[in-house]
Amino acid sequence: MNIIVCLKQVPDTETQIKIAADGKGIVTDDIKWVMNPYDEFGVEEALKLKEKFGGEVTVVGLGPKRVTESIRTALAMGADKGVLVVDDALQGSDSLGVAKALAAAIKDMPHDLIFAGQRAVDEDLGVVGAFLAEFLGIPHVALAVKVEVAEDGKSAKVHRPVEGQTLVVETPFPALITTQKGLNEPRYASLPGIMKAKKKPLAEKSLADLGLDPAGFGESARKLKIVKLTPPPERKAGKIVEGETPAEKAAALAKLLRDEAKVI
Amino acid sequence: MAQGVWTVAEQREGEIRKITYEVVSEGRRLADALGQSLTVVLLGNGIKDKAAALAQYGADKVLVAEDQRLETYTTDAYTAVVAQLVKAEEPAMLLMGASVQGKDLSSRVAARLDVAVAQDCTAFAVEDGNLVATRPIYAGKAYAQVTFEQSWPQMATARPNVMSVNEPDASRTAEVVDAQFQLDDGELKTKVVEAIKDASGKIDLTEADKIVSGGRGMKGPENYAILEELAQVIGASVGASRSAVDAGWRSHTDQVGQTGKVVSPNLYIACGISGAIQHLAGMGTSKVIVAINKDPDAPIFQKADYGVVGDLFDVVPALTEEIKKMI
């Protein structure tokens, strides 16, 4: 089974976000970059399926050169090879641009199954998986917490929680599945894994290599335009509820929630 | 020239979901700002009788797509129909709820139409005839104002529970029209083979009006009973911090935060949660935040409207009793 995992590199979730001087991006100095946490579930699931069905796991990333580190992390976890789509002209692309470039990179690679994180914890759009599936002309099933691949390796039943219930969706391959927490526990890269990863193939592809016109990418081709970024509305520390005993505090709180906040 | 505001209704088992009324109400406001009409697209099977309710919340026209294959949502079927209808009539704006279904459908439709979509927005406005959407990014550590460039319809989804719902007006009626569409079985690749109901019947966190959440301070899974009891009394859903989920005390579907669910209830009660940056990001759009924690220096108190410094094992049951007396 040939499995492709898409990964994005994002600021670590510990990062305090500072808005850049132009008001349209964030300050990226001193940011610790990590593999998008939702993509780790995709890497793990691909490795588990490879252990069962055999085949090859290819990790595809897009972005600046530093994304190589996240691809190496996936290779150290056990993926077989990596591809980085890297081109100055991609800088500032929106999700449509990213998904079109990924589709061009993936369309000629053999793939039964593609995994992508359900969203990236930076822009939180959660659209690249579905966009990519559409551009490849294959079905997608979003928000998987369980993937049961049929014995013949040609279809899967995917469990996805949808407010108040879990749907089991059957999809033929090739298909794209977006991953979320609950699907598995991603493994850590072992020391031998890290050593081996250094020797695994990692190819770089430019837009020209993919036969794409740079004019269709980057800031100027964006269809979703960022007007400005602002800090979240200030939330001031509120009242500390006073009282001698826990019971008194609870009584005072209940009264405030009813009379002042009017939420009870 | 693209004209009119469209929203897509969301139904499950033939019942319109609350998010639909939030989006229709918001669609009405945008249509009024543009001086244009509001059309609601309603997909399902034997669903036409729900059109009247949509009119009461502000629809001028309800475009009804009925087919057995649209009874239950599937990405393939809904995308095919919505994309066709949009291509045929070219609305200026297309709004959906940022529910699991709305996010799924809007992404696939956007790709099919080669247009942008702003997901999970908390506010919409019209400027120079264009949609300006506000959406939290980095799980709410920053807010982005976005607009569209060479992209019609201008597409966006609204975060559940944020936008206000119109008072239904029983005297309002809408034109109800049967939608014309083709659905090719060859296009329908996926199918729903089973729907497993959540036995607890509780409202999903992303749509909950009230949430009682517990963190590391809960000390163990058995202690969530006191939160369940408070939740029962006030009609809340129970959430958890990442550390509680990682400890295996609660299901991953309960996790609130940057790598879990982003929530926006009217009331969020954080019990034994210190307030890591990722957690604060995930619940920062809650309207009223209450923190109950032993540690007076816990960062959660910097975000809370009401803070109780005390042992949650004493305070929470006492709070439950007090509220029982009130209601």
Observed structural traits:
A: alpha/beta, seven-stranded parallel beta sheet, 6 helices, 14 strands, B: 327 residues, alpha/beta, 8 helices, 18 strands
Quick recap of the structure?
Chain A is α/β, with parallel strands linked by helices and 264 residues long. Chain A has six helices and 14 strands. Strand 14 (239-240) of chain A pairs parallel with strand 18 of chain B, so a sheet runs across the interface.
Q: Your description of this structure?
A:
The complex is a heterodimer of chains A (264) and B (327). Helices cover 27% and strands 27% of the residues of chain A. In chain A, helix 2 (67-77) crosses helix 5 and helix 3 crosses helix 4 (128-136). Chain A has 264 residues and is α/β, with parallel strands linked by helices. In chain A, strands 7-11-6-1-4-5-12 form a seven-stranded parallel β-sheet, with helices on both faces. Chain A has a three-stranded antiparallel β-sheet with strand order 8-9-10, with no helix packed on it. Chain A contains six helices and 14 strands. Chain B is an alpha/beta fold. Helix content of chain B is 28%, strand content 28%. In chain B, the strands form four sheets. Chain B has a seven-stranded parallel β-sheet, with helices on both faces. A five-stranded parallel β-sheet of chain B has the order 15-14-16-17-18. A three-stranded antiparallel β-sheet of chain B has the order 8-9-10. Chain B has eight helices and 18 strands. The N and C termini of chain B lie far apart (55 Å). The longest helix of chain B is centred in the first third of the chain and has 17 residues, at 18-34. Chain B has helices at residues 18-34, 51-56, 75-89, 100-113, 224-234, 242-246, 277-283, 312-326, and strands at residues 5-8, 11-12, 15-16, 38-44, 61-66, 93-97, 117-121, 123-127, 130-137, 142-148, 154-158, 175-178, 191-197, 210-214, 237-240, 267-271, 288-293, 306-309. In chain B, helix 5 (224-234) runs parallel beside helix 8 (312-326). The chains are: A alpha/beta (264), B alpha/beta (327). Chains A and B meet through helix 3, helix 4, strand 7, strand 9 and strand 10 of A and helix 4, strand 7, strand 9, strand 10 and strand 13 of B.
